[in-house]
Each structure stands twice: as structure tokens, then as C-alpha cells.
Amino acid sequence: MKVLAVEDNKELASSIHDYLAGEGYICEVAYGFKDAREKLSLFSYDCILLDIMLPDGNGLELLRWIQQEHIASGILIISAKNALDDKVNGLEGGADDYVTKPFHLPELHARLRAIYRRKKLDGSNLISFNEINLNTDTLEAHINATLLDITRKEFDLLLYFLVNKNRVLSRQSIAAHLWGDYTDNLANFDFVYQHVKNLRKKISAANGADYIETVYGLGYKFNSSKV
Amino acid sequence: MKLVNKFTWSFVAIVLILTPVTMTISYRSIKRQLDKAEGIRLAEMNDNVANKLRAGHASQEYTQSHPIAITKITALPEQKVQVIETQEFNNALNRKECLLTVNSFYTINGEYYKVSSYNFVTKSEQIFKGMMAAVIWKVVLLVFGVIITARIISRYVLSPFRQTMVTINNFRVKQKEKIKLPETSTQEFKELNRFLQKMTDKAIEDYASVKEFSENASHELQTPLAVIRSKIELMAETDIDATQAALIEDVQNAIEKLSSINRSLTLLTKLENQEFETSSNIKFCTVTKQVIASFEDWIQMKQLTLTRSLDKNVPLTIHPTLAEMLMTNLLSNAIRHNIPGGHIEVELSAKGLVVSNTGLPPEIPTEELFQRFKKSNQSADSIGLGLAIVKQICEVNRFAVNYEYSNGWHMIGVCFEGKGKMVSAAERFARLQQISMPA
Prior knowledge:
The structure holds two protein chains of two kinds. By secondary structure, chain A is α/β, with parallel strands linked by helices. Chain A has two domains: about 120 residues, Response regulator (Rossmann fold); about 100 residues, Orthogonal Bundle (Arc Repressor Mutant, subunit A). Helices cover about 40% and strands about 25% of the residues of chain A. Chain A is built from eight helices and 14 strands. In chain A, α6 packs across α8 and α7 packs across α8. The longest helix of chain A is centred in the C-terminal third of the chain and has 17 residues. The radius of gyration of chain A is 18 Å and the shape is elongated. In chain B, β10 and β11 form a beta hairpin. At the A-B interface, α1, α7 and α8 of A face α5, α6, α7 and α8 of B.
């Protein structure tokens, strides 16, 4: 996957670049409006990460320009402005999704993958890894041929793990992914623990390999090299 | 009382007070003028008689056809002409009449004479009666005239004022356009309009700068937070030992808390700025059901029992995001501050929403819990803004909210009708006690 990250903050841009490069994506960075427009006229990208506030222009204007030029990339807006109208304007302006700062890198990646699946893989709704098969339309998970009896949250969790294979997923990031940014509702980590435990139990019961491991003090990791 | 009525009644009062006064003045002046004219005429007649006397004519000659009396007197009084008005009973007419007598004193041929003549003049009551009819007509016409013209004129004169009121009523600080007030030639309204224009312009300006500041502050803080979080996440991927992992976890928790506080404060600012205005109705019952469903696994995990009694079809004019946030905050609060194996009761009716839960007794007065960063038992997984947000949402939507505690039960009631509380707390608590006797 080829990604253009339009983000004026160099440190944040480099974090995004490093994380996505770690997934084997080609990630290019544009630090401003003009820079981004230049890159977009020369090359084509599968997905664009777009910051709304840029030093030399507004991300929403760039969004309009992208629409005018009929650039078919998936667009994920990143913004600190979680003002409602911005969100609405962004999505109406042709963006596919929206994350607010400060986001978790695995969350950004998961959303990027979801856009990519919808736009570029022709709405493919099947994700598989070894014996695990997920259908994002029917929300069904199979281990080989066995249908897993899992809840919606557990399905989301498994998908989150599969998208971010071999990454340390902090409890905070999992909680934010599963329950969203509830105001004044700090991540309930016992809850995360409970869900991960249940998921592992259900996968094992269906004779799947126990890929999910605890990383001491940090969270969990889907270890793909485990057999 | 309407302005036009105030003016009208003042004018009517003035007319009613001044009419008797002016009536008395004109009555007196008419009477005086009549008497004076008659007095002068009689005095002239007396003079004529005296002149004739001087010329040596017999006195009877003049008194025959005229009511004139000529008497000799011993000394002249100081006043040469006396005018006396008396009420005499007239036997022929059988009523009191007003008699004007003029006594003139002369020295004729060394002798002193008093010539007195008299005549009946118009009585006071007669003048008064005549005036009364005219005055009543005058007053009635004046009052009607005032009432009608005041109404017609006020409609015309006050129309710019009414337009100004309409404009101000429709003014929302959120709108970026300045208000347009009607042109007027009235000095007072000109001043009022000038003042309102200045005030609203300033309000719009201030609002815009506050909004800009809160957005900028949020942006400026969120970006460094995003940098820290992403760097920590990348660091966690590297080869680290247990000590480092523990340090990273602490940092992650702190970032989580920081970003949550920042998000909540930004939200509160937005609520204060009335950025969530809406005119559309939503079904609050649906929102309640959705929120309860999304918390079901948490409730199960804490082994709580949730009883609900939700009325169907509760329409409410509230921004959908706020409705969800209100319900989420109330329910998550009820779950978080519950005791293991405790109870939650959610009751929704057209009148309001009541969320009750079992829990430890609060350590500070319950009303104080609505203040920012106030927490009852400094529980680590809360930042103390949840109820402040609830209160703010209620204020924005003009709901009344109250928090009560009794015997192991916490109860937060949101009354959709503004003033007033949800059903008497004591009654509800008594019923709740029966659901569970808290440990």
C-alpha cells in the first residue's frame, strides 16, 4: 500500500512514517499544502492521511482540490479540531474516515486498512491469516471451518489484532478502539483483560493457535510466528 | 402594562385632574366679569342720578321706574362706591336670587347722599350648570381622542422598536453576521439601536475569539500529545526490559488521562459556547436503549443488576451527540461508582430520566459533585468531569438536574421540563430500598 501522510508536525509525521513503513507500506510525507498538492499531481497513492490544519492552507481545501482532480485515493482525516462541523465538512467533502489527535498508531493503521479494503480491494470483506478467517460484512469468524461464537467486541478485537500483527497493542489503545473516546471514561483495563482472555479461550477451543500473547506491563501482541 | 397604555392613562389622568381646575378658573372669571359689568352699569346709573340731584331735580323722578334708593346720610364713608352681592330670597319667584347692590356716595350741595341701586344677576349655579354640560362633553371627547390617537401613533412610532425587539430575539451569538436594525427618526430608538449594534458586534467578536482560542488550545495541546503517544508506542515496539516497560506504562496512563482531560475541557467550552444547538427532535428512548446495550458487557463484568423502565416514544429536542453523551456519562458513572453485586435502575418517562445506583456514601455534599474535578472518593479511573459535563448539557438544554443520596442509593434525576424535580426523592428511595438492601 502506498500512503501519503500530509502532516505539518515533523515528529508526528515521522512516527506515522515509521509505523507504516514497519508494515511494509510505502509512506511518503508532505509537510504542507503545496507540498502535498505537488506530490499528489505527480504520483498516485492508495491512501492519504490528511491533517486539517496546515501552515500554508486548510486540509479541507486540499480535500476539495482532490475531489476536483478526481484523485481516487482513500482519505483519512487527522485533526486536533474535533469540532463537529469540521468532522461533518470533512466527511461530506469526500473523506472516508476521521481520527482525532492524539490517536493511537495501531488505531490509525486499522482505519487506514479499513479504507483500503473498501476502496482498493473492491470492498473485499474477507481477512484471513493462517487458519483464521474473518468476514467483516457478516461479522463471522472461522477457525479453519469452525464458526467462532464471539461477540461483536471480540470480533472487533480480533480484527484489530490481525491488522496490527506483531505490534504491541497497549491496553489504552485496545480500550479506545473498542469503546471509542468516551468522555470522562478512562480505559477500563480489567475489561480489556477480560475480553482478550475470552477471545483466546474461544480460539483455543476451536483448535486455533494461541497467537495472542501478553507483553508484560505493556499490553498484548498478536505473534504471527507462533505455531 | 403596555407603553401606549401608560401614556394614555397618564394623559387621561391629567385631563381628569385639570378639567375641574380649569373649570373653576373659567367659572370664576366669567362670574367676576358679569358682576363687574353689572356693577359698572349700576354705578353709572347712580352717577346719573347724583348729577340730576345736583341739578336740583326731585329725587323721586329717578326712582320711580328704577330700583334706586336715595338716602341722606350724616357722613361719607371712605369708600365712595360699594359693591355688595347678596343672596336674597325672592318672594315673587319663590327662590333665592343673587342680588347685586351698588351704593355710591356723593356730596351734593353740602349734603351727603347715598344712592343705591340693585339688580339681579346670574346665579353661580346657573353658570356652573351651563359649564358642566360643556365640560363633560369636552372630557369625554378628549379621553376618546387620546385613547384612539395614542393607539394609532404608537403603532407608527413604536414600529422600529418592535422590529428591533424581533431582531434581538433572533440574535444568536453563533451567527457570524452582524445584526441589521431598522432605521428610525426617534432619538431614543436611535440610541438604543446604536447601543444594541455595538453590544452584539462585540458579543460576536468575543465569541469568535473565545471559540478560536479553545480550538487553538485544543489543537496546540493535542498535537504534542499525539507526538508523545506515537513515540511511546514506537518505543514499546523496541527491545525493552521489564523496568522500561513499567515506565512506559505509567507514561501511557498519564497521556491517556491528559488527553481525556483536554477532550472533556474542550467539550465543556463548546457546551458553554452553545455550539450544540438543534431544533430537531430525537427519540431519547432509542438513545437510552443503545447506550445501555453498549454498556451491557461492562455491567455483566461488574456483576451488576440493571433494571429499566423505559417509556416508549420520548421525543426530545436535543443534539444527538449530547443525548448520547448525557446517557453515557450517567450510566458509566453509575457503573463505575457501584459496589460489587450492586444494582442500577434506569427510568425514563416523558417527564425525565432517573438513573439510580447502589454505591458507597459520598464524602462531599452531592451537589458539589457537579463541580469540575470534584470527586467523592478519588477513584483512579475517573477524571472528575463526567458530572460537570452532565450539568452543562442539562443547562444548555434547559433541563433541571439533581443528585441525591440516601441509605446506599445514589440518584441522579434529569427533569426535561426545566424547573422542578423528578418525583419526590423520598418516595423513590423507599421503593429502591426494597430492590436491594445495600450491604
